């Protein structure tokens, strides 16, 4: 029997990867809230993607309905997590594997505290996608990679089965036996990219073109790595160089999803992404002025943003 997937959050990330899995014929249900449910019932789940469009009619459930699932793809924003945990708990059992796709790291502690030991795998994704006004998922550049694995490095049977479910999907899904390291690398990259694109209100191109923008980015990367090194995590010597070369390879138009959300007046994950690292810096008495500047900009922005639930 195939695995039963529950995608929590039919947004830019969950809608894309869950949609690709559904398109491949797998058993995928989306946990949604009532407004999104109405929209999806009217329009279908629409992917407008450089990798191929799709229009799907996914099974939808809301909190309190019946069902248990083998795998949860968790793809809400970090600031929505507290509500999500309550809504989700009735859909999981002792065997359910939870794969979080959020940016950042802090959610792992929250999830580990809430769910059974070992339930939560490591996960991340590289994709530039956003929700349009009509609720379609707009995927604008060629990357659509989802990486997951056991955080203890095992290549477990459940990882192999989940990977097999994705085999026929139109997405680049990979397993990793170094998922914790991969998550910290992505964390460094996204803290930098979301930090600079929101601070300078700009895509990557103009930031890279100016000496000041490049110097700021360089200092920010170094500073974040210094903070990360105060943890017991596998922060290898090449972290800063790899993040810098990733930054150099981005297209001029690239913006972090945080900057896209900021342009829409939506909430941002400042406390989860930059704030978490600043709390680490404070704990270890480590100075982080560039990160502080990025965070201050986001905290000022937060006073003016739209309220959403
Ligand atoms: N977008 C991108 O390009 C990338 C994003 N990420 C990360 O992925 C995570 C998700 O981001 P993204 O997909 O962009 O966010 P979106 O805002 O597009 O999607 C989040 C979805 O979660 C839903 N949701 C929130 N709370 C609940 C709930 N209690 N029950 C059911 N659904 C709920 C929202 O639905 P509702 O309509 O009800 O609010 C929304 O559809 C973030 O951590 C982000 O940083 C990582 C890589 C790339
Ligand atoms: C940089 C990118 C698009 C890579 O997946 C991302 O994670 C984000 O913008 O949130």
Give a quick rundown of the structure:
With 309 residues, the chain is α/β, with parallel strands linked by helices.
What attributes does this structure have?
309 residues, alpha/beta, Rossmann fold, N-(1-d-carboxylethyl)-l-norvaline Dehydrogenase, domain 2, 2 domains, 5-stranded parallel beta sheet, 5-stranded mixed beta sheet, 12 helices, 10 strands, 18% strand, binds NADPH dihydro-nicotinamide-adenine-dinucleotide phosphate, binds ketopantoate, 2-dehydropantoate 2-reductase, NADP
Structure description:
- With 309 residues, the protein is of the alpha/beta class.
- It has two domains: 4-177, NAD(P)-binding Rossmann-like Domain (Rossmann fold); 181-302, N-(1-d-carboxylethyl)-l-norvaline Dehydrogenase, domain 2 (Orthogonal Bundle).
- Helices cover 44% and strands 18% of the residues.
- The strands form two sheets. The protein has a five-stranded parallel beta sheet, covered by helices on one side. Strands 3, 4, 8, 9 and 10 form a five-stranded mixed beta sheet that branches.
- Helix 1 links the parallel strand 1 (4-8) and strand 2.
- Bound molecules: NADPH dihydro-nicotinamide-adenine-dinucleotide phosphate and ketopantoate.
- NADPH dihydro-nicotinamide-adenine-dinucleotide phosphate (NDP) binds next to helix 2, helix 3 and strand 8.
Blueprint of the fold:
Blueprint: E1 4-8, H1 14-23, E2 27-31, H2 34-43, E3 45-49, E4 54-56, E5 60-61, E6 71-74, H3 81-88, E7 97-100, H4 107-114, E8 122-131, E9 137-149, H5 157-166, E10 172-175, H6 179-199, H7 204-209, H8 211-228, H9 239-249, H10 257-263, H11 271-283, H12 289-302
Parallel strand pairs: 1-2, 1-6, 2-5, 3-9, 6-7, 9-10
Antiparallel strand pairs: 3-4, 8-9
Helix pairs in contact: 6-8, 6-9, 6-12, 8-9, 11-12
Bound molecules: NADPH dihydro-nicotinamide-adenine-dinucleotide phosphate and ketopantoate.
């Amino acid at each position: 029997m195939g695995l039963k997937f529950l995608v929590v959050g039919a947004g830019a990330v969950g809608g894309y990867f869950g949609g690709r899995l559904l398109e491949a014929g797998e058993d995928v249900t989306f946990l949604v809230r009532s407004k999104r449910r109405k929209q999806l019932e009217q329009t279908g789940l629409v992917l407008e993607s450089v990798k191929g469009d799709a229009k799907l009619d996914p099974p939808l459930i809301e909190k309190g309905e019946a069902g248990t699932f083998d795998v949860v793809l968790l793809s809400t924003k970090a600031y929505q997590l507290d509500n999500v945990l309550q809504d989700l708990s009735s859909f999981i059992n002792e065997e359910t594997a939870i794969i979080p796709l959020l940016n950042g790291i802090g959610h792992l502690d929250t999830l580990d505290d809430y769910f059974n030991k070992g339930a939560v795998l490591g996960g991340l994704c590289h994709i530039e996608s956003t929700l349009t006004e009509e609720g379609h998922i707009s995927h604008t550049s060629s990357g659509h990679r989802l990486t997951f694995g056991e955080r203890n490095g095992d290549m477990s049977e459940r990882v192999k089965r989940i990977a097999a479910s994705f085999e026929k999907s139109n997405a680049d899904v990979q397993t990793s036996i170094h998922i914790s390291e991969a998550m910290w690398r992505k964390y460094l990259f996204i803290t930098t990219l979301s930090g600079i694109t929101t601070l300078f209100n700009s895509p990557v191109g103009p930031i890279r073109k100016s000496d000041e923008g490049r110097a700021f980015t360089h200092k920010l990367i170094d500073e974040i790595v210094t903070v990360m090194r105060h943890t017991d995590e596998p922060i290898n010597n090449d972290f800063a160089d790899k993040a810098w070369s990733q930054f150099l390879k981005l297209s001029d138009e690239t913006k972090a999803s945080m900057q896209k959300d900021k342009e829409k007046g939506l909430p941002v994950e400042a406390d989860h992404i930059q704030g978490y690292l600043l709390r680490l810096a404070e704990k270890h008495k480590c100075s982080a002025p560039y990160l502080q500047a990025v965070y201050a900009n986001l905290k000022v922005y937060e006073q003016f943003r739209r309220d959403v639930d």
